[in-house]
Amino acid sequence: MLMLSRRLLMPLSVAVAVAAATTVPAATAVPVPRPAVAADTDPVTFAAEPVAPAAPAAPASSVASVASAASAASEADIAHHGHVAFWSDQLEIRLRTANRGPADVSASTVRLRFSEPLAVRQQLPPGCLWGGRAAVLCETGALAKGGQTRRTALDLRLAGRPAEVVVRVDTVWSGGARDADSGNDTHTVLAPSTGDPYAF
């Protein structure tokens, strides 16, 4: 069983080569009779050892409860809140990210998309990178359930000076945990060019 699982992890060409090298042609294979062994023997005294009885199988109800616990452990509730302020070509975003559980999140990433392209020559804060001309990705790190809120601050410049900008916020990575409530981590904010903060 172990050899099979290792072969599944190999590239197909390597698995075929290994199989070809270890296969014995049918014409040369000679069956070897094996004596029947009633019990295992002690390698020191060569005396027969009693065979331990097999452990009883776990009831189906306990297996189901373990499966449901594992499923619950992979669920989390990531929430993003903050505000957007926009004036001239300046875009200020303050973001707070938290995890309401029930499980911890090993790593997470938030995506911010904009209805207008961003200016090319500008510095992004540490932990953030470009996701295109009108998108930024920022890591929000590991999030313990009910733990400390992670803060992200972005001061960006747009390529032009529109009358308004739409900012879309969502989670693109949650460490493999499933988020059953996406209503608190997906937001669309319309910010007119007034400098007023618009909360989400």
Structural overview:
- The protein is of the alpha+beta class and 200 residues long.
- It is 16% helix and 32% strand.
- The strands form three sheets. It has a five-stranded antiparallel sheet with strand order 5-6-4-8-10, with no helix packed on it.
- Strand 5 (128-130) and strand 6 form a beta hairpin.
Question: What attributes does this structure have?
Answer:
alpha+beta, 11 strands, 200 residues, single chain, elongated, four-stranded antiparallel beta sheet, 32% strand
Task: Write a brief caption for the model.
This protein has 200 residues and is α+β, with helices and mostly antiparallel strands. It is 16% helix and 32% strand. It is elongated.
Layout of strands and helices, then pairs:
Elements: H1 2-9, H2 12-22, H3 60-73, E1 75-76, E2 78-87, E3 90-99, E4 109-114, E5 128-130, E6 135-139, E7 150-157, E8 164-173, E9 178-179, E10 187-192, E11 198-199
Parallel strand pairs: 1-9
Antiparallel strand pairs: 2-3, 2-11, 3-7, 4-6, 4-8, 5-6, 8-10
